[in-house]
Design brief:
- It is a single chain.
- By secondary structure, this protein is mainly beta.
- The protein has one domain: Sandwich (Jelly Rolls), CATH 2.60.120.
- The protein is about 10% helix and about 45% strand.
- The longest helix is centred in the C-terminal third of the chain and has 16 residues, at about 130-145.
């Protein structure tokens, strides 16, 4: 049986936030269902926000905060939001892998224009009961990702 859990909050520019998902037995898996971001003061100034979800702490990542590199092995999702007052246009894009995790995840965001704005986020995760084999496979995959860095 699966259910959806949601998280929302505000990310400070350049600071990562940990969402604790790990359990003692690792038998609960999580898949990203929705990942959206928006400016805390929508429509008041031009902004370009980039938010990412990682399956390990991004502090060790060599990729710049506002850069998206799909070859990053720990990158699970990105979301991009832009608003331009002169063009009166808003753009929103969200891309995520259909990957499952049973470990903690980390969110980070940056303002590509000024580098000072915070970012509001909304995240929905689907929980899935894992078998012993699935739990072991996902945990080993996470360990390989961490060891490869």
């Amino acid at each position: 049986m699966s259910k959806t859990i949601s998280y929302r909050g505000q990310l400070t520019d350049g600071i990562s936030e940990k969402i604790s998902l790990a359990t003692l037995n690792g038998k609960t898996g999580y898949k990203i269902k929705k990942f959206q971001i928006i400016d805390p003061t929508p429509g008041q100034s031009d902004v370009e926000l980039v938010a990412k979800i990682y399956n390990k702490d991004p502090a060790t990542s060599s990729v710049a905060a506002g850069t998206v590199d799909f070859t990053e092995s720990s990158l699970m999702a990105i979301s991009f939001y832009t608003f331009e007052r002169g063009n009166i246009g808003t753009s929103f894009q969200s891309i995520f892998d259909n990957e499952m995790t049973n470990q903690d995840i980390f969110l980070t965001a940056t303002d590509s224009t000024a580098g000072t704005k915070s970012t509001n986020y909304y995240l929905e995760l689907e929980t899935v009961a894992l078998t012993d084999l699935q739990s072991t496979q996902i945990t080993l995959k996470s360990l390989r990702t961490i060891a490869s860095r």
